[in-house]
TrEMBL record:
This is Pirin family protein. The keyword Metal-binding applies. Its cofactor is Fe cation. GO terms for molecular function: metal ion binding. It comes from Arenibacter certesii. Belongs to the pirin family. Keywords: Iron, Metal-binding. Fe cation binds at H58, H60, H102, E104. It comes from the Bacteria. The lineage of its organism: Bacteria, Pseudomonadati, Bacteroidota, Flavobacteriia, Flavobacteriales. Residues 148-234 form the Quercetin 2,3-dioxygenase C-terminal cupin domain. Binds 1 Fe cation per subunit.
Length: 239
């Protein structure tokens, strides 16, 4: 078993006034050569956007971009004709492929919006761009794992061009779940503690801590307090 721990207060910090962001991996003006990625997981940004503010229209290509709203409403618009709102309980995916233009704004005039922006390096280049979002039944993750992303279009959650699986769980204190990797030979898991405290394979973690773990078949997860966790299983090789 191999592992890397990123404590919450060691993440990169960006404060643009209207945007406050914590970067688990190198991004924009935050560069740490020891934190470039975890396998194909390239970006994990913990963003807070002020009332009615947001990201103007900008381009992406050849990246799988996943957004998970935590609080508030986020307005999305792109050049594929999509104009929609995502909010807590939703998950959004965009395959940038040959190129997309999009904007993201806080749709609330009276409260900030908080969301995770996640980039996964795809296993296919120059694909046709696409957009999808779904609303999840969050009760399905109560003291158990809920799959929210996979490589398969007909599987639970959204899908991306990569051999990756994301799961979320909301655990009451002292409850336990076990995660068995889908591809233990090639993949690792990055666990991100959204709320509360948990112990994963013997490592005690607190809110917004991250644990990357690989060369392992199973994760044993115990809630040390009421906790919410995002598990991201991804290939460790960039090839």
């Amino acid at each position: 078993m191999k592992k890397v721990i990123h404590k919450a207060d060691t993440r990169g910090n960006a404060d643009h006034g209207w945007l406050k962001s914590r970067h688990t991996f190198s991004f924009a003006n935050y560069h740490n050569p020891e934190r470039m990625n975890f396998g194909v997981l390239r970006v994990l940004n913990d963003d807070t956007v002020s009332e009615s503010m947001g990201f103007g229209t900008h381009p992406h290509r050849d990246m799988e971009i996943v957004s998970i709203p935590l609080e508030g409403d986020l307005k999305h618009k792109d050049n594929m004709g999509n104009e929609t709102i995502i909010k807590a309980g939703d998950i959004q995916v965009m395959s940038a492929g040959t190129g997309v233009m999009h904007s993201e704004y806080n749709n609330n005039p009276d409260q900030p919006v908080k969301f995770l922006q996640i980039w996964v390096i795809p296993n296919k280049q120059n694909v046709e761009p696409r957009y999808d979002q779904i609303t999840l039944n969050t009760t399905d993750r109560k003291n158990k794992l809920q799959q929210v992303l996979s490589p398969n279009a007909d599987d639970a959650g959204v899908w991306i061009h990569q051999n990756a699986w994301f799961n979320m769980t909301n655990l009451d204190k002292d409850n336990e779940v076990q995660y068995n990797l889908n591809d233990a030979e090639n993949n690792g898991v990055y666990a991100f503690i959204l709320k509360g405290d948990a112990t994963i394979n013997g490592e005690k973690l607190n809110e917004r801590d991250g644990l990357g773990i690989w060369d392992v078949d199973t994760l044993d997860i115990k809630a040390d307090s009421d906790t919410e966790i995002l598990l991201m299983e991804v290939p460790m090789s960039l090839n």
